Amino acid sequence: MPSSNQRSILIFSILTTAVLAAAAALALWNGGETLPAAAPAAVPASGGDWGLSFSTEGQAPSGNASPAELKKYDAYYLGDTSQKVIYLTFDCGYENGNTMQILDALKKHNAPAAFFVVGHMIESAPDVVRRMAAEGHVVGNHTFHHPDMSSISQQEAFRKELDTLADLYQQTTGKPLSHFYRPPQGKYSEENLKQAQALGYKTIFWSLAYVDWNTDKQPSPEQAYAKLLPRIHDGAIVLLHSTSRTNAEILDELLCKWEAMGYTFKSLNELPAA
């Protein structure tokens, strides 16, 4: 019969094995990424890198800050969670031949989207940006130079990044830029949220994204679906990158799959209180 010490070691070994097995299963469900612990219900909008915590498949994740805290600054990462609606958004740093195919898929599904552009995108691909505007999509402010805006504390410097982009867009399209703003790389501070609000902007984060931005290591369609289908949820603000070859190839089918799940697509202009 094992001694008391041997029994303790055996029990510890069994418990450790069980914990590791559970962690491995969780990581496998999440596509190989270990899920962080769920965030508390009310998190202050203090800043940092925007991040998400998924706890239940098909349910909205928790963010770095709660919807209630963000709303104080006209900031959002979720839309109307009472309806099966999706808000499609694309970050557009530059054009590499994929945006037109993305626009084609959106047009086919009559799906509105928001494109957050930087100065280089407008300067290098004005016809693409004009098409976004002509087809009724929201074109939002992703700043002119794409800096870490959380390092900018002066309102005038903050304003210049946004105003320079807005002026270039108006010169290029003849239309005013929408007052939706997305911080580059999701880096923000509470002061940034106040600065954007003072300029009349609504700050838009996201509640669903995946690693699609690395053009040298694009995910397969199967890998993309494994991330985007189980995690979709009511009121999702989805972040995709227009530079992604995978996104261009799968968007038509992805929208079909989401429609088959009962989802419809709305513009950021239809956000509650937007």
Describe the structure.
With about 270 residues, this protein is an alpha/beta fold. Helix content is about 40%, strand content about 15%. The protein is built from 9 helices and 12 strands. Strands 5, 6, 7, 11 and 12 form a 5-stranded parallel beta sheet that branches. Strands 4-10-8 form a 3-stranded parallel beta sheet. Helix 3 packs parallel to helix 9. The longest helix has 26 residues. The radius of gyration is 21 Å and the shape is globular. The N terminus is likely disordered.
Outline the secondary-structure elements.
Elements: H1 4-29, E1 47-49, E2 52-53, E3 62-63, H2 67-71, E4 75-76, E5 85-92, H3 99-108, E6 113-117, H4 119-124, H5 126-134, E7 138-141, H6 155-173, E8 180-181, E9 187-189, H7 190-198, E10 202-204, H8 221-228, E11 236-241, H9 245-260, E12 264-265
Parallel strand pairs: 4-10, 5-6, 5-11, 5-12, 6-7, 8-10
Antiparallel strand pairs: 1-9, 2-3
What is the overall number of helices?
Answer: 9
Mind telling me the C-alpha Rg?
A: 21 Å
H/E series: HEEEHEEHEHHEHEEHEHEHE
Shape: globular
Strand runs, count: 12
How far apart the termini lie comes to: 70 Å
Profile the largest sheet.
5 strands, parallel
Helix content: 25-40%
Unreliable stretches:
1-43
Instruction: Output the structural class.
Output: alpha/beta
User: Mean pLDDT across all residues, rounded?
Assistant: 86
Q: DSSP strand (E) fraction?
A: 15-25%
Concise summary:
With 274 residues, the protein is α/β, with parallel strands linked by helices. It has helices at residues 4-29, 67-71, 99-108, 119-124, 126-134, 155-173, 190-198, 221-228, 245-260; strands spanning 47-49, 52-53, 62-63, 75-76, 85-92, 113-117, 138-141, 180-181, 187-189, 202-204, 236-241, 264-265.
